[in-house]
Amino acid sequence: MSAPESKNPATPRAKPVISAEKGRRARRKFIRSVMLLAGIIGASLAGILPVLQAGVKRLRPPGALDEKDFLASCIKCGQCVQVCPVSAIRLGDLDEGVGIGVPYITAREQACDFSCDAVQYILACPTGALTYTKPGFFPVREGAGLSSLPILKARAGEPEPALNLKERMGLARLTRPEACLAVQGKGFSGSARETTFKGRMRYMEVDRWKPIPVIDHPYERELCDLCVTECPIEDAIALEPFTDADGNQRFRPVAREQCVGCGVCEMICPLEFPAIEIESRAVWEMNGEGA
Amino acid sequence: MRRLVENFFCMLGMEPKKPEHPAQISAEVRRIMEIKREDKSRIKAHLHDQAHRQPRHAWRNRRWAVLVAVNLLFMFSFWLDIQILEGSLTASRFVGFHLIDLNAALQVMLAHKHLIVNLVIGTLTIFLLWVLLGGRSFCSWVCPYHLVSELTEKIHLALARKKLVTDHEFHRGARTVFWVLFVALAFLTGYTVFETLSPVGILSRALIYGPGLALAWVFLLLLFEVFWSRRAWCRYVCPIGLTYGVVGTISPLQISYHVEPCFHEGDCHKVCLVPHVLDVTIKGRAPVAEMGLGPDCTRCGLCVDACPTGALRFEVKGLSKLL
After folding, report:
1. What's the mean pLDDT in B167-181?
2. Interface touch B91/A100, C-beta < 8 Å
3. Shortest CA distance to B126 belongs to which of B103, B109, B107?
4. B96-121 residue pLDDT tens
5. Of B114, B122, B193, Cβ closest to residue A126
6. How far is B203 from chain A (nearest CA, A)?
7. What ipTM was assigned to the predicted interfaces of this complex?
8. Are residues B294 and B233 in the same domain?
9. What phi and psi values does residue A241 have, to the nearest 5 degrees?
10. Given a cut of 90, is residue B149 above it in pLDDT?
11. What is the domain extent for residue B150?
């Protein structure tokens, strides 16, 4: 009987020491866990930046939903990247503010020239972020819709020459008219771009299915009209005559309503800084002009 | 000579003979038989020790081979344009069939609030695949981050042995809270917020489409795991793992624990990413003689390799009884 008695006073003292330590540890672990939660969620909120920065206008691939819906639906798998024959599509990185892994096009570096003939990469999209037929409940912004399907010059003579594309990606605009060679009445000869340029394009007279580097295809023009002749879409851009301040009869490139905003004109413009650029997500204004 | 003759007659039809006299048995054999008779348990213990000292890596090697092969297939499908497995881990097509990561699909569905057929088909296919293959098997057999963090875990353990770092544990419930928060964020913001953080997606895309700045985030996570908390992302954060874990609840492929051969030594605990699933191996914890380890088990097989007595085995529920 004496043994338990002598133990008893010891146990109550020992017990609280252990459980206090246990409690401290549990409390620390809990606080750590809460801090981990706050840290990771905080970091993830940086991921919403692209949504808030929807004003940072990057050119999305043809067939993309409107920016907000596009960001919501893109699963960031890059299957569109894999299908594009000219590698126009890239995936956004951490610093680009367009959403990590979300596809975009930098027209000046590599425009979409519809070398694939049918924008069939849309079929590769598993979530419908890129689509031929937008569901009815996604509204079409006024002026974003094309009044008729764009005719692909490369397929002009064929039974079905139209691209299955119902909305524009943007619009071409003459942003530096003073620099434009056509506006100055100048011609152009040689390679359209610098020797280090990697962009490719499909030239029907070279090979319908194999795009070649733009620098391997020199031009010779009395009056520079590359943006007009190289445009893959029929009736999307034309040289329009005007009289300049000195009374000279000159021409300037003007985008028409059929312009889908693919960016070939921006890529092919032979100036150091392109005179014509794509304004992504720009819409056609019925009363005004495109360019 | 005597044995030679005996063997020869044995061939012709004579029955093999038992030595008639102890003198016919050599001193060495007599000694061995003596030990065997008297010290059965010592020999068993000796073999058992040997098993501990010579770790097997059979399942780990198989698993690494599969993990590397799957990710290489992704890479080569694009690089060499062989088009077998196009896309990345968030979504892909295997010879044309859509496959979509369950967590990525969930995030997109909630953010976009609209379903298309390809998304449903791809999600269902992957769901069925991982129901069959064991849910979190995705983590250890496919996920590239798992492999990288498995390697950096070795650095963490080496530093921990030298007492340079200690493992700071978090509450495992944090992962559940993360899962709920990321689901809520996707729904409320209309953006797949988790995908910007997901080291799985970032690594997979970096492997296929080339490295980018986003890898810096993966690097930070690995540093955190090396110096602060062992395998923190997989254990306490990753909602992908939890999603696949839920799928694995009904999966027939599992690692099963058998009480009888178990010595309760705890080697399996030490190698496990999710050691709580192995708590049944603690003496007195197992309610039945055989059981699966449960849905959080990644079926990585490290415990199967580590167990010297075969108490942990890969098993397909029902199939073993059938066989």
Report:
1. 94
2. no
3. B103
4. 899 999 999 999 999 999 889 999 99
5. B122
6. 11
7. 0.84
8. no
9. -75, 145
10. yes
11. 58-245
